[in-house]
């Protein structure tokens, strides 16, 4: 049920994340479109599994977050947590049910994405792009299994630090052999991923990426040179995050490193060894009952492994194991552990 918006509501809205980063003009435009809603005790604000393009913010009252019928968390107005959108992941991982009379607002995430991009003075112009795309990078980000696993505060900081750039056909975004500097998410357009196996041989196309796909994270995680070249095959829009921000806000919270003794205990409790070395190295010697999934094939074969098991990942190099663990989380959302000291 809609209710009249007050000056107090406007003051609360100005403090929400990431609304607090908008210019006064943009904030004024947004506030003029927002409708405050009221829910009575027991009423649902949204349901688990919803995929609507809405950020829901609590203004007053208390809300319970439910997994199925079980309450797993609660949010009270006026707290730091209430400055962020409720259960922001898409599809939503929880339902939100009022525990008292509450007021709240819904803000279209696509409109907010556009305003954030403009506030960063990013150029946004797409001409003659035939690829179907939502053009809503915020929603694409929230749908990523990786970003659903980082703390909510980190996710909000990621969204505020993302930089939107327009690109054209033929632009080389990253080049094989160069140092990694950004993580990229494709908002619209299409690009080609190619690798040159040897210096005197022509590049080989490995894949084509479209809106919603991401790239560039491997070099940032392993701290090694780019392993491939990515070139735009259409005009489009990319959103990028600097290496420093990616490491601080995404890599660090997801990194779980175990020494051998603790890793061995995890395996004893039911986890499995996952060896990402090349087959020839695996055949030369490996841990008992370990599975071999070479690093270069992980993206394509990970779906063949059970996603209800924990895996202790190890490789010839720490950086390779760390990258493999990240990719594993990206594909199957399963907990993955990295082991040192092989």
Could you give the order of strands across the largest sheet?
Answer: 17-21-20-18-19
CATH architecture of the largest domain: Sandwich
CATH class of the largest domain: Mainly Beta
Helix content range of the residues, please?
Answer: 25-40%
Overall description:
The protein has 342 residues and is of the alpha+beta class. The chain has 3 domains: 2-108, Jelly Rolls (Sandwich), CATH 2.60.120; 120-250, Sandwich (Jelly Rolls), CATH 2.60.120.10; 255-339, Oxidized Rhodanese, domain 1 (3-Layer(aba) Sandwich), CATH 3.40.250.10. Helix content is 29%, strand content 28%. The protein contains 11 helices and 21 strands. It has helices at residues 7-14, 24-33, 109-119, 137-143, 152-161, 217-222, 243-254, 260-268, 279-284, 298-301, 318-332, and strands at residues 2-3, 36-39, 44-46, 54-60, 62-67, 70-76, 95-98, 102-108, 163-167, 172-174, 182-188, 191-195, 204-209, 214-215, 229-232, 236-242, 257-258, 272-275, 291-292, 311-314, 336-339. The strands form 5 sheets. Strands 17-21-20-18-19 form a 5-stranded parallel beta sheet. It has a 4-stranded antiparallel beta sheet with strand order 1-2-8-4. It has a 4-stranded antiparallel beta sheet with strand order 3-7-5-6, with no helix packed on it. Strand 18 (272-275), helix 9 (279-284) and strand 19 (291-292) form a beta-alpha-beta unit. It is globular, with a radius of gyration of 22 Å. 34% of the residues are buried.
């Amino acid at each position: 049920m809609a209710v009249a918006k007050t000056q107090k509501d406007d003051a609360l809205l100005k403090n929400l994340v990431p609304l607090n980063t908008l210019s006064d003009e943009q904030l004024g435009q947004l506030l003029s479109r927002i409708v405050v809603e009221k829910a009575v005790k027991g009423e649902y604000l949204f349901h688990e599994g919803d995929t609507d393009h809405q950020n829901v913010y609590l203004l007053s009252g208390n809300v319970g977050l439910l997994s199925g019928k079980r309450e797993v968390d609660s949010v009270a107005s006026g707290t730091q947590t209430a400055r962020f959108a409720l259960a922001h992941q898409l599809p939503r991982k929880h339902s939100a049910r009022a525990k008292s009379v509450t007021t709240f607002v819904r803000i279209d995430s696509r409109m907010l994405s556009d305003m954030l991009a403009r506030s960063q003075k990013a150029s946004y112009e797409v001409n003659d792009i035939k690829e179907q795309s939502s053009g809503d990078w915020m929603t694409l980000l929230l749908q990523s299994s990786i970003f659903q696993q980082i703390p909510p505060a980190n996710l909000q900081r990621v969204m505020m630090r993302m930089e939107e750039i327009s690109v054209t056909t033929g632009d080389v975004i990253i080049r094989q052999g160069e140092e990694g500097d950004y993580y990229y998410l494709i908002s619209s357009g299409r690009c080609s991923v190619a690798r040159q196996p040897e210096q005197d041989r022509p590049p080989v196309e490995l894949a084509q990426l479209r809106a919603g796909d991401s790239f560039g994270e491997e070099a940032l995680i392993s701290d090694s040179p780019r392993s491939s070249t990515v070139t735009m095959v259409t005009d489009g829009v990319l959103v990028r995050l600097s290496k420093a921000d990616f490491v601080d806000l995404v890599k660090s919270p997801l990194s779980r490193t175990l020494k051998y003794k603790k890793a061995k205990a995890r395996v004893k409790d039911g986890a499995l060894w996952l060896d990402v070395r090349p087959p020839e190295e695996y055949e030369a010697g490996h841990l008992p009952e370990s599975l071999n999934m070479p690093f270069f094939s992980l993206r394509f074969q990970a779906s063949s492994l059970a996603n209800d098991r924990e895996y202790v990942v190890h490789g010839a190099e720490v950086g390779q194991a760390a990258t493999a663990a990240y990719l594993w989380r990206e594909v199957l959302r399963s907990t993955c552990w990295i082991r040192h000291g092989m």
